Amino acid sequence: VCIHRVRSCSSIRFIKSKYVCVFDKSALKFSHQQRLFRTSAVSCGQIVQFKLSDIGEGITEVTVKEWYIKEGDSVSQFDSICEVQSDKASVTITSRYDGIIRKLHYSIDDIAFVGKPLVDIEIDASKGVASEEDVVETPPMSHEEHTHQEIKGHKTLATPAVRRLAMENNIKLSEVVGTGKDNRILKEDILNYLAKQTGAILPPSPKAEIVPPLRKAEAVPAAPKDKARKIPLPVSRPIAFSGKDKTEPVTGFQKAMVKTMSAALKIPHFGYSDEIDLTQLVQLREELKPLAEIRGVKLSFMPFFIKAASLGLLQYPILNASLDENCQNVTYKASHNIGVAMDTEQGLIVPNVKNVQVCSVFDIAVELNRLQSLGSAGQLGTSDLTGGTFTLSNIGTIGGTYAKAVILPPEVAIGALGKIQVLPRFNGKGEVFKAQIMNVSWSADHRIIDGATMARFSNVWKSYLENPASMLLDLK
Amino acid sequence: MVFQALKNCLWLSCVLRTPKACFWSTASGALIIQSVSNDVYQNLAVEDWIHDHMDLEKQQVLFLWRNSPAVVIGRHQNPWQECNLRLLRQKNIKLARRRSGGGTVYHDLGNINLTFFTTRKKYERMENLKLIVKALKALRPQLDVHVTDRYDILLDRQYKISGTAAKLGRTSAYHHCTLLCNADKFVLSSVLKSPYKGLQSNATPSVPALVKNLFEEDPSLTSEMLLDAVAKEYAMQHEIDHHITLINPADETLLPGISNKTKELQTWEWVYGKTPKFSVSTCLNMAYKDSVVDVKVNMDVKHGRIEVCNIDLPEQWLPPALYSELVKSLTGSKFCPKETTTLVTTLLRVYPQEDELHSRWSLLCENMIRLM
Lengths: 476, 372
Hints:
The complex is a heterodimer.
Chain A: H1 2-9, H2 20-23, H3 32-42, E1 46-51, E2 61-67, E3 74-75, E4 80-86, E5 89-94, E6 99-104, E7 111-113, E8 117-123, E9 148-151, E10 154-157, H4 160-168, H5 187-198, H6 223-230, H7 252-264, E11 269-277, H8 279-294, H9 302-315, E12 321-323, E13 330-332, E14 338-340, E15 342-343, E16 348-349, E17 352-353, H10 361-377, H11 382-385, E18 390-393, E19 413-417, E20 421-426, E21 432-445, H12 451-466, H13 469-474
Parallel strand pairs in A: 14-18, 18-19
Antiparallel strand pairs in A: 1-8, 2-4, 2-7, 3-6, 4-5, 6-8, 9-10, 11-21, 12-13, 14-17, 15-16, 19-21, 20-21
Chain B: E1 2-5, H1 11-17, E2 30-35, H2 40-53, E3 60-65, E4 70-73, H3 79-82, H4 85-90, E5 94-97, E6 105-107, E7 111-119, H5 125-139, E8 145-147, E9 153-155, E10 159-162, E11 164-168, E12 172-180, H6 185-191, E13 199-201, H7 214-217, H8 223-237, E14 243-247, H9 258-266, H10 268-271, E15 278-288, E16 291-302, E17 305-312, H11 320-330, H12 337-350, H13 355-370
Parallel strand pairs in B: 1-14, 2-3, 2-14, 4-5
Antiparallel strand pairs in B: 3-7, 4-6, 7-12, 8-9, 9-10, 11-12, 13-15, 15-16, 16-17
């Protein structure tokens, strides 16, 4: 059972199971036996007081600004322990030992003294105590003497745990390529080396410190040849995926979406879709775009869609209404504040254009420009984001044809516009012509809107857009 | 003065195979590099990269850089306390948090940045600053510039023209400083003045100082001349050729991992989330109809998020259900106007109100957002 569990959490089968405890701590959660083995190896560890080393420039005290670890955490040599500050200098203090943090001698904002204990670390008894050398007095590399192996006169950096792993597997550190900081040899490097020897497939290393996009395969010289020689038969192996689930709290924009959509759930939605021939509108917009540009405004299709919707709402005001919480009263809103769904970095926001019923298409274009630039800068105010009465979502700019939009309370209807596609259609004479087709999908609150009303509104909207000249007749 | 551009990745093998030595130049004991980018995040990422990956034992480095308008706060500072975040957002001025300590500075192309990389043992700020003063005096002997014991450089004994900060790691260290040539002093003073009241924190405070541009003292000076003068002096002192290697901070092949560093420096979690715990204790005086409504607000902000939120409203000014939803929503969310705006407008959707309450709600929320 023990071995089976080891296998399922990592495909490192060539390593004897007892060594899994040393570096693959996730395996321990599955086996009580192994947990005992681990604690018995560590409980007789020695507590070492790690003192704050000299900062330089004659500084004797610093302020502790941030702890990177807490009591009970395990640390490796060179891991960051805390950040201290002294007179405009921010210093990262790293651990000299592998072990478990047993005590923090200071809290945030406390003054720490050079030469006094900073943290207590419980180190593995078998590893021995590191020499208490001051980092500054001796040349930088020598305080790590006990972690180096001088092989062929070439110093190799590796932590004691990694060195032991290599030793127990009869690996010469000089033959292993280090990919860590300072070309340090990491445990992944040992495992990669072992994998090449036996031909086993390893999961990708989760933390590669340098990710080199190698053009010359210098770091991995003989691998392809080795593989060809040492894997004679194709054996199906389960390739273990070493990715982990990540759970984070729902906050900010996501929290807002959750609230809005949960409220929308109470609304019984029905959908109604149709196809709009925008051939004439496309032509009209082409003619008007340069005029708008002269006035400094970018003219898209949205101002036309918005104005046409407002004209439709004049005929079917129930679509611009709001139902109260107890479904006792319907309030017909006088202003047509038409919301436009916008996709930003953080997510969906819906600012609205106020009083479309008294705005010209150009006015709407100006306002849209303003809302779009504020929206992309993340500077929309509350007044722009509240008071909406009806919403259009132009999802077609991203893609799609039909959609099922969710009504944004306290409104009662929403329209989702698909992308404009060039499609063949038949005209009145039965001839095929090129048409610019867009699909619209409406969703409405079935408690107060019926299908017929939605359909008639949609037809009005459609006819204004298919014959833009007809809008002229009804513009106020 | 010769500018040498880096083209091929012949050096790539150098970077990965040998223990961090010979990066760009093998022979000399020092190297002068200059960034081709004016993006503050990219340039700060280069500093991080050199600090983490270069072996400075055999070769010290001088890094020259300039940024387009940005405010840079120190590692342990509070941006709300240090600058006018509203103004920054309006003027599209970037906000960055560097990894070194010290106070807040304003950068634009009229300001030059100099970073001296050494091993931790050779970390010596005074020497670096004296080098700069020597360079300035060599360029314009009549300049009255000197180094104070706070590691500032003063012009005419009163005006600060350079501020210093430093970062020390396990084996390497860097000391960087600014040098005002022709920065926009008007923008500088307006962005570095915080409008936020009632903030209490243990974050490192900045010490405001009277500043002056070297350009005002001598209009013939330009940023390029200053950069070059410092490079020349550095080259002389380190006995190397006076040539500057240009580097592109977007070059992932040359600086593997740099784009991740650049991205990290731009995350909200780094810029705002690393603010030490602070509290906001203030009174909103809201003009409503014909009177003024006083609302006491107390918030504790940790890691940039609102941990505790107390709003003292007059009784029944807002429906209790809506009020408690507001407090609940704010607790745990970012101390950020964007996020708060989204949350409060959502609440209004979910609990719609008629005009009177709607305007009270909007008033309260606008005032709360102004605190951020």
